[in-house]
Structures are given as C-alpha cells and as structure tokens.
Design a protein that fits this description.
Layout lengths: L3 H10 L12 E9 L2 E8 L7 E7 L12 E8 L39 E6 L7 E9 L5 E2 L13 E2 L8 E2 L15 E6 L17 E4 L11 E8 L3 E6 L3 E2 L16 E2 L19 E2 L3 H17 L6 E6 L1 H12 L6 E5 L13 H8 L6 E2 L6 H4 L2 H7 L7 E6 L10 H10 L4 E6 L11 H4 L1 H4 L9 E5 L19 E3 L3 E8 L3 E8 L8 E8 L11 E6 L5 E4 L8 E6 L5 E7 L2
Parallel strand pairs: 10-13, 10-17, 16-19, 17-18, 18-20, 20-21
Antiparallel strand pairs: 1-2, 2-5, 3-4, 3-6, 6-7, 6-8, 9-11, 11-12, 12-13, 14-15, 21-23, 22-26, 24-25, 25-30, 26-29, 27-28, 27-30
Helix pairs in contact: 6-7
C-alpha cells in the first residue's frame, strides 16, 4: 500500500493534492493477468445497501485529472462482489435462508477470496492498450457517483499488461483438471437443463467443477461469473452449463415467482439489457447474451480440449430442449444434430403461451422488442419461421412432445412440424397424450434418438425424410384435433452412403416394432460434401430395381427423390449420378 507521503510525490507530478487514505470505501486495489483476462480485487469499507461500484480503465494512471478520459468497463458491480453467490441458496430461492458467505476461487488450487471484498474481471479486447490502468469508484444508493480518486487505494499506480487470449475456465474440483487436448477427436455435447435448474447451492452443491467469468457481450456487464460441469469420457466431452445470471435484485416484475431472486434463468437465450434495474423499459432490447456464451463454451472445448468440430451436438429437456432447438436453428454451422425433449419451438403470442417464458426476463412483448442487431425478438424466436426461411442445412432435430403438457402448449407444435416437412429439413418427433414428463413413456426406438443423433457430422452428407406415409396426424394444434399418439419420420434411417463428385448413393431403411410395409418417403440429400448440386442441374436417379429417371435440381439447390418405396427391413438403395 502506498503511503500518503509517496502519494504526495506521485500526485505532485500530476499537479494534484494528496487525498487522505480512507476517503473512499475502496482500498488495496490490485490486478493480475491470466489467460486473456485481468482480475481486479479490492478491499471494501462500510457502505449502505444499494451501493454499487464502477470500474474504469485507461492507458495512463487514472487520477482526478485523467478520470474524465478513462473508459468505464464495469458498472453496477454490487457490494462484496468477491462473494461466490453460486454457493448461497438464497441466490436461487427467495424463501431460502442465506448461506455462510464464501469467496470466489479465481485461480485453480488457491484459497477463496475474502467474500467481503470486491472482484471485477476484465477481458482483454482488440484495441485495448498494451498496459492498462484501473480505478474503482462508488455510486451511492441515490445514484450519485463519488469520483474521488486516491492513487494506490482505488486506482492502480502500476499498470497491468494483458493480451488477447482464449479465456480459460477455473477448475474447482480437487481432482486433476483435464489437460489441454484431453478431448482430442471426441464428440462435444452441450447438455442444457430445464427451467428452475442451474442451482449449485444446498443439496446441489458440488454439481459443477468449472467457473468462468464472461466477456463483453456475454452478459449485461462483463465479468459476470458462470459455472458449468465438465465431463471427459471415452468418446465424448459433455459440458453442462448452469443457466443462471446474477442481476443483483429479485426480478419481481416477472409473473413467475422463480425469478423473484437475484440469480435467474434466461431461457438459454438472453434478457433485457437493463435487467439489473428493470425489464419494464421504454425500449425493449434483449441481446442473446446466453447464446453467445454457449458459443464460447463450444469454441473453448474445440480449441483447448481438442474436440472434433464436425461432431458438436446439443441436447436438453423442457427449457433446455427449447434452447436446443433455438441454438440449432440460429447456429446451423456449429451443431451437427440436436435432441430435444418437450421443447418449445416458437414463442409468438405476447402475454400468453410460450412467449410468457421470454417475458420473464425480457419484459412485456406486447410492444416492439428486438435483439441486439435489430431483429424483432418474436421473429428470432419463432422456430417455424426460422426453419421455413433457412437457406442452408439445419441440423437434424429429434424431439418428443406431450399433448397435455401444461408447461409446453401443444398448439405451438404442429406449425413447426409442418414447416420442417415443407422446408425439407431433417426432423423426427414422437408425441403422446401425456404431460411434461411424457418422454419417459416414449417407445424404446424413439428414446434411442438420444444416442443415435451423434451419428451425424458436419462434414458428412445425410438424407432428409419428408412426406413419410407412416406419419401420424398431428392435427392443427387444437386439443380435439389429431392423433393422441403419433410420430413423424419414426424408424427411418440410412446406411452405406457414397458421396463423390459424380455419384451420391445410400440405402434407406424403415424399421421399428409394429411398422406395416410397404411405406413411402421423399428423400432429399443434405450437407453434400463432394456431390455438389446447382439449381437447374440434371441428375439420373435409380431407386431400387427401377430404371433410371432424370430429376432436376430446384431453384433452392435441392434435389428430392419422391415417393421412395420401402418394402421390408432391408431397405431401398437410391443412386444419384450427375448428368453428362
């Protein structure tokens, strides 16, 4: 700590007078760089409830004279931000008794921080100076900011050097952390939990082993802490993120009491950019913070653990299933396939149905609401619309739904089913007349989708099945319309693929217990690697023992072989040869 005499000498250079130590409730500010991030810690004096802290950065020492030109990199940093709120039951439940305060561990294998102190994590970004200086100021409950600077106390005397680098999660387990390359050549599976999940305190303590501090664009401010569970198996790396964001207040304007706590779910999407104050904002802008964070986890696993990018998958149930479908639709070049149990496919009607899930943390949607890039939010979250207008290959989606699911309204499902079929995108679903837990009653072959979806790869072609004669009637969405139990594209599979510049071939099969042959199905090759097609091309198609016929590639660049007949479990061979 710098003495007042030393501070006087320093300030003399800046033509400033000495300010007494203790004039601000921030002292012992220090900084250390690790893996693309600068960790700031400080001691805090007594402050009233409702006090917040601000963090500034500059290329020169921050003084009273230079503060005006400094960049504010942190705002609404709560009191005692070094406290690991993930270990406190009261963070997740408004009725829970607060736990014993515990500090964050900010470096693997070290002691926790003092939970009564402050913590802010800045991620180095392009354009940052090679050396950064920081200062921390205080905003009172009445929103008045005290901009007093005491060098050596709430402002760094020496800068910290940082560089752009891949952010590394902090390993929290006592066991050895997975080494770089531990997932080399393996699948990567993101596994998303349901609404109300993400709790890591109380009975669920110890369910996570990784901590990461989010960068700019991954939350309402940078430096927000997130936790996840990492499992490295023989063939797959599984990342199970916890969808909770700290907003520092109970979100009491949400109609769902589960949000009346300071750490809330985000529907695996994001939330109102002013959620730290209110979601009842004059302008409703809701960036996809959580989606961006999930993409960081994918990138980290691929670059650090070495997982195989073409074998990246996503799965989840309920809210997690909804996030699974949305991520597959929004980022089709990232995920090879998706498995979603009882998902919401679309949020379209403000104030009712599935849209109320978004309104919990985004605010009312009966007025225009937008993503960060200006896209109407309800358009972005309309799965039927997204799959209809997709110009490329959407990852194959396997799903289950219940017609009496009070949490996931059935009326939203048939429009998505129809859109997937009409757009010739890979989709299969099983439904019954059950409620939210209906997936446990699915037939064994449909449950097996949760394993089989990892056969897809981003660098291999696959067939899309549509207009399958064995499909059941899903109806219009009304309770009395359609089959109570049914499916789309159940039992369909393929084998022995060929994908060369001249030829594309595979054997299409249809197998499940109780199937009645013959069946017919339209087949559209997708994700073609070598057998490239252009609108207007001619292709010779041979189906089974029939004579070749000439088919034309449509204006979308797709070729569909119609009404392929499958007579038995052996299947039917389809061979496509480029026209001369």
């Amino acid at each position: 700590m710098m003495s007042c005499a030393a501070a006087t000498r320093f300030l003399a250079v800046s033509s400033l007078a000495c300010v007494a130590v203790g004039a601000v409730p921030v002292s012992e500010l220090s900084a250390v760089y690790r893996h693309g991030q600068i960790f700031l810690t400080w001691s805090e004096g007594d402050t009233p409830e409702g006090t917040n802290f601000n963090v500034y950065s500059h290329s020169v020492p921050i003084t009273a004279a230079t503060l005006g030109k400094a960049t504010q990199v942190g705002h609404h940093v709560e009191r005692h931000s070094a406290r690991d709120w993930w270990q406190d039951p009261a963070s997740f439940d408004r009725k829970a008794e607060p736990g014993e305060p515990a500090g964050f561990v900010v470096e693997s294998g070290t002691d926790p921080l003092d939970p009564g102190g402050g913590l802010f994590v800045h991620t180095v970004i392009k354009g940052d100076p090679e050396t950064l200086y920081f200062a921390v100021t205080v905003t009172a409950p009445d929103r008045a900011e005290d901009r007093t600077i005491v060098p050596g106390e709430n402002a760094l005397l020496e800068g910290v050097s940082g560089k752009l680098a891949l952010i590394q999660p902090i390993w929290l387990s006592k066991s050895a952390a997975p080494a770089a390359g531990a997932g080399k050549g393996k699948n990567l599976i993101l596994s998303l939990h349901g609404r109300g999940g993400g709790v890591t305190a109380g009975k669920r303590k110890g369910t996570v082993n990784c901590l990461v501090f989010r960068s700019v664009g991954h939350g309402w401010r940078e430096g927000l802490p997130s936790k996840f569970r990492l499992s490295v198996g023989a063939t797959s790396v599984v990342i199970s993120p916890m969808d909770r964001v700290w907003v520092g207040r109970p979100v009491k304007e949400s109609r769902d009491a589960r949000d009346h706590c300071p750490a809330v779910n985000t529907w695996w999407y994001g939330y109102n950019r002013h959620i730290y104050e209110t979601t009842l904002t004059a302008e409703t802008v809701c960036p996809n913070y959580t989606e961006r964070y999930l993409l960081y986890l994918v990138r980290w696993a691929q670059k650090y653990l070495g997982t195989d990018p073409p074998r990246t998958y996503i799965k989840g149930g309920s809210m997690g299933g909804s996030g699974t479908v949305a991520m597959a639709l929004h980022f089709p070049d990232v995920f090879a396939a998706a498995f979603a149990q009882v998902p919401v496919y679309s949020c379209t009607k403000p104030g009712k149905g599935s849209a109320t899930r978004l309104e919990c943390t985004c605010g009312p949607l009966n007025k225009p609401a937008f993503t960060a890039d200006g896209t109407p939010l309800l358009e972005y979250m309309n799965g039927a619309l997204q799959i209809s207008k997709a110009t490329g290959d959407i990852p194959p989606i396997f799903a289950t739904n219940g017609r009496k699911d009070g949490s996931i309204p059935w009326e939203n499902n048939p429009p998505f089913y129809s859109a997937a079929n009409q757009s010739r995108q890979a989709f299969a679903v099983y439904w019954n007349n059950g409620a939210h837990g209906m997936s446990r009653d699915a037939p064994a072959d449909c449950k097996a989708w949760g394993r089989q979806f990892t056969r897809y790869r981003l660098d291999q072609s696959y067939p899309v099945f549509s207009s399958y004669s064995d499909n059941r009637n899903y109806g219009s969405g009304h309770a009395a319309d359609g089959d109570l139990q049914g499916w789309i594209n159940r039992g369909l599979d393929w084998a022995d693929p060929v994908d060369t510049p001249r030829e594309h071939a595979l054997t299409v099969t249809a197998i499940y217990e109780g199937i009645a042959y013959p069946v017919t199905v339209d087949v559209t090759p997708r994700r073609l690697q070598k057998f490239k097609l252009r609108p207007g091309d001619s292709v010779q198609a041979t189906v089974g023992p029939a004579k070749p016929v000439t088919l034309a590639v449509d204006r979308h660049g797709l070729l569909t072989v119609p009404k392929v007949v499958i007579n038995d479990a052996k299947g039917t061979r389809i061979r496509l040869v480029r026209g001369e």
